[in-house]
Design brief:
The chain contains eleven helices and no strands. The protein is 74% helix and 0% strand. The radius of gyration is 25 Å and the shape is extended. It is mainly α. The longest helix is centred in the C-terminal third of the chain and has 46 residues. The protein folds into two domains: 138 residues, Voltage-gated potassium channels. Chain C (Four Helix Bundle (Hemerythrin (Met), subunit A), Up-down Bundle); 106 residues, Helix Hairpins.
Length: 260
Protein backbone atom coordinates (compact mmCIF):
# COMPACT_ATOMS: atom_id res chain seq x y z
CA UNK A 1 0.00 0.00 0.00
CA UNK A 2 2.89 2.33 0.83
CA UNK A 3 4.40 1.70 -2.59
CA UNK A 4 1.08 2.38 -4.29
CA UNK A 5 0.71 5.67 -2.42
CA UNK A 6 4.24 6.67 -3.42
CA UNK A 7 3.63 5.89 -7.07
CA UNK A 8 0.35 7.76 -7.03
CA UNK A 9 2.07 10.74 -5.41
CA UNK A 10 4.62 10.91 -8.22
CA UNK A 11 1.90 11.08 -10.85
CA UNK A 12 -0.69 13.18 -8.99
CA UNK A 13 1.31 15.80 -7.09
CA UNK A 14 3.42 18.06 -9.36
CA UNK A 15 6.03 18.29 -6.58
CA UNK A 16 6.53 14.53 -6.80
CA UNK A 17 7.05 14.40 -10.58
CA UNK A 18 10.77 13.96 -11.24
CA UNK A 19 10.71 14.47 -14.99
CA UNK A 20 10.31 17.75 -16.83
CA UNK A 21 6.87 19.04 -17.64
CA UNK A 22 3.71 17.47 -16.25
CA UNK A 23 2.71 13.89 -15.68
CA UNK A 24 0.05 12.49 -18.00
CA UNK A 25 -2.46 12.67 -15.17
CA UNK A 26 -1.87 16.37 -14.52
CA UNK A 27 -1.84 17.07 -18.26
CA UNK A 28 -5.31 15.53 -18.38
CA UNK A 29 -6.34 17.62 -15.36
CA UNK A 30 -5.24 20.82 -17.12
CA UNK A 31 -7.14 19.88 -20.28
CA UNK A 32 -10.32 19.17 -18.32
CA UNK A 33 -9.97 22.38 -16.31
CA UNK A 34 -9.85 24.35 -19.56
CA UNK A 35 -12.78 22.35 -20.92
CA UNK A 36 -14.81 23.03 -17.77
CA UNK A 37 -13.82 26.68 -17.99
CA UNK A 38 -15.08 26.95 -21.58
CA UNK A 39 -18.28 25.12 -20.63
CA UNK A 40 -18.89 27.54 -17.78
CA UNK A 41 -18.53 30.46 -20.19
CA UNK A 42 -20.87 28.89 -22.75
CA UNK A 43 -23.58 28.09 -20.22
CA UNK A 44 -23.98 31.80 -19.45
CA UNK A 45 -25.50 32.18 -22.93
CA UNK A 46 -29.29 31.55 -22.73
CA UNK A 47 -29.40 30.19 -26.31
CA UNK A 48 -26.80 27.55 -25.44
CA UNK A 49 -28.59 26.58 -22.22
CA UNK A 50 -31.92 26.28 -24.02
CA UNK A 51 -30.52 24.22 -26.91
CA UNK A 52 -28.07 21.98 -25.06
CA UNK A 53 -29.34 22.04 -21.47
CA UNK A 54 -29.34 18.26 -21.05
CA UNK A 55 -25.88 17.88 -22.53
CA UNK A 56 -24.58 20.58 -20.20
CA UNK A 57 -25.92 18.66 -17.22
CA UNK A 58 -24.23 15.46 -18.44
CA UNK A 59 -20.90 17.19 -19.02
CA UNK A 60 -21.06 18.93 -15.64
CA UNK A 61 -21.69 15.54 -14.00
CA UNK A 62 -18.67 14.07 -15.78
CA UNK A 63 -16.46 16.97 -14.71
CA UNK A 64 -17.74 16.74 -11.14
CA UNK A 65 -17.01 13.01 -10.96
CA UNK A 66 -13.50 13.42 -12.31
CA UNK A 67 -12.57 16.37 -10.10
CA UNK A 68 -14.04 14.65 -7.05
CA UNK A 69 -11.86 11.58 -7.68
CA UNK A 70 -8.87 13.87 -8.29
CA UNK A 71 -9.49 15.71 -5.02
CA UNK A 72 -9.77 12.47 -3.03
CA UNK A 73 -6.56 11.15 -4.62
CA UNK A 74 -4.70 14.34 -3.73
CA UNK A 75 -5.91 14.05 -0.15
CA UNK A 76 -4.83 10.40 -0.09
CA UNK A 77 -1.26 11.08 -1.29
CA UNK A 78 -0.81 14.41 0.55
CA UNK A 79 1.35 12.94 3.32
CA UNK A 80 3.92 11.79 0.74
CA UNK A 81 4.77 15.44 0.26
CA UNK A 82 7.50 16.43 2.79
CA UNK A 83 5.52 19.58 3.53
CA UNK A 84 2.65 17.48 4.92
CA UNK A 85 4.67 14.56 6.30
CA UNK A 86 3.73 15.59 9.85
CA UNK A 87 1.10 14.49 12.37
CA UNK A 88 -2.32 15.24 10.94
CA UNK A 89 -0.64 16.03 7.63
CA UNK A 90 -3.75 15.15 5.65
CA UNK A 91 -5.75 17.67 7.64
CA UNK A 92 -3.06 20.32 7.09
CA UNK A 93 -3.29 19.69 3.35
CA UNK A 94 -7.09 19.93 3.36
CA UNK A 95 -6.79 23.35 5.02
CA UNK A 96 -4.30 24.63 2.45
CA UNK A 97 -5.47 27.35 -0.01
CA UNK A 98 -5.25 25.05 -3.06
CA UNK A 99 -7.22 22.27 -1.39
CA UNK A 100 -9.88 24.71 -0.18
CA UNK A 101 -10.18 26.12 -3.70
CA UNK A 102 -10.65 22.57 -5.00
CA UNK A 103 -13.37 21.98 -2.45
CA UNK A 104 -15.18 25.23 -3.25
CA UNK A 105 -15.08 24.42 -6.96
CA UNK A 106 -16.55 20.98 -6.26
CA UNK A 107 -19.30 22.43 -4.08
CA UNK A 108 -20.29 24.74 -6.93
CA UNK A 109 -21.45 21.64 -8.83
CA UNK A 110 -23.79 20.76 -5.97
CA UNK A 111 -25.76 24.00 -5.87
CA UNK A 112 -29.37 22.81 -6.26
CA UNK A 113 -30.84 23.18 -9.70
CA UNK A 114 -33.82 24.96 -8.17
CA UNK A 115 -31.48 27.84 -7.30
CA UNK A 116 -30.70 28.33 -10.98
CA UNK A 117 -33.85 30.45 -11.31
CA UNK A 118 -32.35 32.89 -8.82
CA UNK A 119 -29.96 35.15 -10.74
CA UNK A 120 -27.66 35.76 -7.78
CA UNK A 121 -27.01 32.10 -6.98
CA UNK A 122 -26.71 31.15 -10.65
CA UNK A 123 -24.07 33.83 -11.24
CA UNK A 124 -22.31 32.97 -7.99
CA UNK A 125 -22.08 29.31 -9.04
CA UNK A 126 -20.61 30.28 -12.41
CA UNK A 127 -18.08 32.58 -10.77
CA UNK A 128 -16.94 29.79 -8.45
CA UNK A 129 -16.61 27.40 -11.38
CA UNK A 130 -14.50 29.91 -13.29
CA UNK A 131 -12.22 30.12 -10.23
CA UNK A 132 -11.33 26.51 -10.97
CA UNK A 133 -8.99 27.80 -13.69
CA UNK A 134 -6.72 29.19 -10.96
CA UNK A 135 -5.88 25.62 -9.94
CA UNK A 136 -3.60 25.33 -12.97
CA UNK A 137 -1.15 27.50 -11.06
CA UNK A 138 -0.20 24.58 -8.84
CA UNK A 139 1.13 22.58 -11.78
CA UNK A 140 4.10 24.85 -12.46
CA UNK A 141 6.99 25.60 -10.16
CA UNK A 142 7.47 28.75 -12.22
CA UNK A 143 4.42 30.23 -10.52
CA UNK A 144 6.06 29.87 -7.13
CA UNK A 145 9.27 31.48 -8.37
CA UNK A 146 7.27 34.23 -10.02
CA UNK A 147 5.35 35.09 -6.85
CA UNK A 148 8.61 35.10 -4.89
CA UNK A 149 10.17 37.50 -7.41
CA UNK A 150 7.15 39.83 -7.26
CA UNK A 151 7.21 39.78 -3.45
CA UNK A 152 10.84 40.90 -3.55
CA UNK A 153 9.76 43.87 -5.66
CA UNK A 154 6.93 44.67 -3.25
CA UNK A 155 8.40 48.00 -2.15
CA UNK A 156 8.82 49.25 -5.74
CA UNK A 157 5.29 48.19 -6.62
CA UNK A 158 3.95 49.87 -3.48
CA UNK A 159 5.74 53.09 -4.43
CA UNK A 160 4.28 53.02 -7.96
CA UNK A 161 0.78 52.44 -6.54
CA UNK A 162 1.25 55.34 -4.11
CA UNK A 163 2.39 57.63 -6.93
CA UNK A 164 -0.62 56.58 -8.99
CA UNK A 165 -2.99 57.36 -6.13
CA UNK A 166 -1.42 60.79 -5.61
CA UNK A 167 -1.69 61.60 -9.32
CA UNK A 168 -5.34 60.53 -9.36
CA UNK A 169 -6.14 62.76 -6.38
CA UNK A 170 -4.31 65.74 -7.93
CA UNK A 171 -6.00 65.16 -11.28
CA UNK A 172 -9.44 64.87 -9.69
CA UNK A 173 -8.90 68.05 -7.70
CA UNK A 174 -7.71 70.13 -10.68
CA UNK A 175 -10.55 68.89 -12.91
CA UNK A 176 -13.03 69.70 -10.15
CA UNK A 177 -11.69 73.26 -9.98
CA UNK A 178 -11.53 73.69 -13.76
CA UNK A 179 -14.71 71.90 -14.83
CA UNK A 180 -16.93 71.89 -11.74
CA UNK A 181 -18.92 74.97 -12.76
CA UNK A 182 -19.24 74.00 -16.43
CA UNK A 183 -20.13 70.33 -15.84
CA UNK A 184 -21.48 69.95 -12.30
CA UNK A 185 -22.93 66.50 -12.97
CA UNK A 186 -19.58 65.07 -14.07
CA UNK A 187 -17.03 67.25 -12.22
CA UNK A 188 -19.11 68.92 -9.51
CA UNK A 189 -17.08 67.30 -6.75
CA UNK A 190 -13.73 65.58 -6.37
CA UNK A 191 -15.35 62.12 -6.01
CA UNK A 192 -17.27 62.73 -9.27
CA UNK A 193 -14.04 63.70 -11.05
CA UNK A 194 -12.33 60.65 -9.60
CA UNK A 195 -13.80 58.28 -12.22
CA UNK A 196 -12.53 60.45 -15.07
CA UNK A 197 -9.06 60.57 -13.53
CA UNK A 198 -8.88 56.80 -13.11
CA UNK A 199 -10.06 56.17 -16.69
CA UNK A 200 -7.61 58.72 -18.11
CA UNK A 201 -4.54 57.87 -16.05
CA UNK A 202 -4.94 54.17 -16.83
CA UNK A 203 -5.21 55.13 -20.54
CA UNK A 204 -8.65 53.51 -20.77
CA UNK A 205 -10.31 56.75 -21.81
CA UNK A 206 -13.94 55.73 -22.22
CA UNK A 207 -14.77 59.16 -23.66
CA UNK A 208 -18.12 59.38 -21.87
CA UNK A 209 -16.89 62.46 -19.96
CA UNK A 210 -14.55 65.06 -21.47
CA UNK A 211 -13.41 68.53 -20.32
CA UNK A 212 -14.88 71.54 -22.12
CA UNK A 213 -12.92 74.45 -20.61
CA UNK A 214 -9.49 75.52 -21.84
CA UNK A 215 -7.77 74.81 -18.53
CA UNK A 216 -9.54 71.48 -18.26
CA UNK A 217 -8.43 70.40 -21.73
CA UNK A 218 -4.81 71.41 -21.04
CA UNK A 219 -4.68 69.47 -17.81
CA UNK A 220 -6.51 66.56 -19.43
CA UNK A 221 -3.67 66.33 -21.96
CA UNK A 222 -1.08 66.42 -19.19
CA UNK A 223 -2.99 63.73 -17.30
CA UNK A 224 -3.18 61.50 -20.39
CA UNK A 225 0.60 61.83 -20.97
CA UNK A 226 1.32 61.05 -17.31
CA UNK A 227 -0.95 58.04 -17.66
CA UNK A 228 1.41 56.48 -20.22
CA UNK A 229 4.29 56.71 -17.76
CA UNK A 230 2.06 55.51 -14.94
CA UNK A 231 1.30 52.30 -16.80
CA UNK A 232 4.91 51.85 -17.95
CA UNK A 233 6.40 52.09 -14.46
CA UNK A 234 4.78 49.02 -12.82
CA UNK A 235 5.00 47.21 -16.16
CA UNK A 236 8.79 47.59 -16.11
CA UNK A 237 8.94 46.41 -12.49
CA UNK A 238 6.85 43.33 -13.26
CA UNK A 239 8.83 42.61 -16.44
CA UNK A 240 12.04 42.58 -14.38
CA UNK A 241 10.40 40.28 -11.84
CA UNK A 242 9.29 37.90 -14.61
CA UNK A 243 12.78 37.86 -16.08
CA UNK A 244 14.34 37.06 -12.71
CA UNK A 245 11.83 34.28 -12.07
CA UNK A 246 12.34 32.58 -15.43
CA UNK A 247 16.13 32.91 -15.21
CA UNK A 248 16.02 31.34 -11.75
CA UNK A 249 13.98 28.40 -13.07
CA UNK A 250 16.39 27.99 -15.97
CA UNK A 251 19.41 27.95 -13.65
CA UNK A 252 17.72 25.47 -11.29
CA UNK A 253 16.89 23.17 -14.21
CA UNK A 254 20.48 23.31 -15.47
CA UNK A 255 21.80 22.52 -11.97
CA UNK A 256 19.44 19.57 -11.64
CA UNK A 257 20.55 18.13 -14.99
CA UNK A 258 24.22 18.51 -14.05
CA UNK A 259 23.69 16.74 -10.72
CA UNK A 260 21.84 13.89 -12.40
Amino acid sequence: MKLNRTILYEYIDPMGWKSSGLSKFNTLVCILIFAAFILTILETEPAVRNSFGQWLVVLQSIFFSFFLIEYLLRVYVATENPKYAVPYGTLHYMKSPWALLDLVALLSFLIPATWASTAFFARLARLIKIMRLARIGRFSQAWTSLFEAISKRGSEIAISITIAFILIIISSTVLYLAEGAAQPEEFGSIPRAFWWSVATLTTVGYGDVTPVTGLGKVFAGITAILGVGLVAMPTGILAAAFSEAFQKDKNNLSTTKEES
